[in-house]
Amino acid sequence: MKNTRRSCLKHFSFISLFLKHNLLSFLGCLVLIAIVFVTPNSLLAVPAKSGQVLFNENCAGCHINGGNIIRRNRTLKLSDLKRRGLDNPEAIARIAKEGIGTMSGYEEYLGEDGAKLVAEWIWNQAQNAWTQG
Q1: Residues 106-133: pLDDT tens digits?
Q2: Would you say residue 132 lies in a domain?
């Protein structure tokens, strides 16, 4: 009788442990599902890239440190930008999107607001003589 009782208690503790473990896993899954479906999309969205990151990914190959390895007189230095009438971020953004001369536009690569972000970053760098990276 004692062995049967001990055996039943062993099985009961095993079943209890098994249910407790699975219950915790089930509750954990429910919490994750609730977070995904209840959290606003704005919190789950991939953060937008900064102007600097976009520049490094798409522009720095030719315009390293604001220069131009293809056409030396078409730099992103403040004096060259102003000489060509590019005296604001909007003008720079238009060229980043549409291109100019032999430079193709990058709208497809920069995304919806990318041209504006990269243009603002370029303008800021030009204002500071490209000393900040």
Answers
A1: 999 998 899 999 999 999 999 999 986 5
A2: no
